[in-house]
Specification:
single chain, alpha/beta, Rossmann fold, seven-stranded parallel beta sheet, globular
Length: 248
């Protein structure tokens, strides 16, 4: 059975820009009210994202906080409680992407990446579980944005991949523990966001070996998030949004 997303309430971390922003806009298009989280995004980007979200006729508020520690997560959920009586959807999208081979990673870099990519989703998941189980009509869905580093050893992004592998397991543990009330799923995007340092020709060349032979876009991930939120027989699922890159 499909869940009607109209009038549901969501938190999307890292949603002022890039993929997180596309996710927030797609949920708004589906009628979901939103708390937009950001950390280092410019204020103008946050305001523009809120303006676009509200153009779909839903409520939207923004909160800036550093989720790498408990006080920042507490602030996020306190702000949510100020505006909304419940939580139906949590999307853990915020992350960093630091390039290092394993022998180069300093302890500070290790903590920085693990805190952003794994500890923050863990703390947000804990808060969301308590809120979802304690509210009238208990339940909800948690969706974690991973990447191929979670399943394939990206040797140039060693600690990043390790953090995302942990996030993938967090998804599975959450799904196994908290059903039937709470579902948990993950998305592994492929070539959906061109790095700033790549030119367009080089970016498109990366897609040539894939079955679909083309790159995607943040909207592809966003629609997958809405699908996982809507389909109530999916939990513990890992959805590859990658043009078939995972099969080569």
């Amino acid at each position: 059975m499909q869940v009607d997303l109209r009038e549901k309430v969501a938190i999307v971390t890292g949603s002022a820009r890039r993929v997180g922003r596309a996710i927030a806009l797609e949920l708004a298009r589906c009628g979901v009210h939103l708390l937009v989280h950001y950390h280092s995004s410019p204020e103008e980007a946050v305001k523009e994202t809120l303006r676009e979200i509200k153009s779909f006729g839903v409520e939207a508020y923004a909160v800036g906080s550093d989720l790498r520690s408990r006080p920042g997560v507490d602030q996020l959920f306190a702000t949510h409680a100020d505006h909304f009586p419940r939580l139906d959807i949590l999307v853990n999208s915020a992350a960093n992407f630091q390039r290092r081979q394993l022998h180069e990673v300093t302890l500070d870099e290790w903590h920085e990446t693990l805190d952003a990519n794994l500890t923050a989703p863990f703390l947000c998941t804990q808060h969301a579980i308590r809120l979802m189980l304690g509210q009238e009509n208990p339940g909800g869905v948690i969706i974690n944005i991973c990447d191929k580093g979670a399943i394939d050893p990206w040797i140039d992004y060693a600690h990043h991949g390790i953090s995302k592998a942990g996030l993938l397991m967090l998804t599975r543990v959450t799904a196994a523990t908290y059903g039937p009330d709470i579902r948990a799923n993950a998305i592994i995007p492929g070539l959906v966001m061109k790095p700033d340092h790549l030119d367009e020709a080089r970016w498109q060349a990366f897609a040539e070996p894939t079955p679909l032979k083309r790159t995607g876009a943040p909207d592809d991930v966003a629609r997958a998030v809405a699908y996982l939120a809507r389909e109530d027989f999916l939990t513990g699922a890992v959805l590859h949004v990658d043009g078939g890159e995972s099969v080569i």
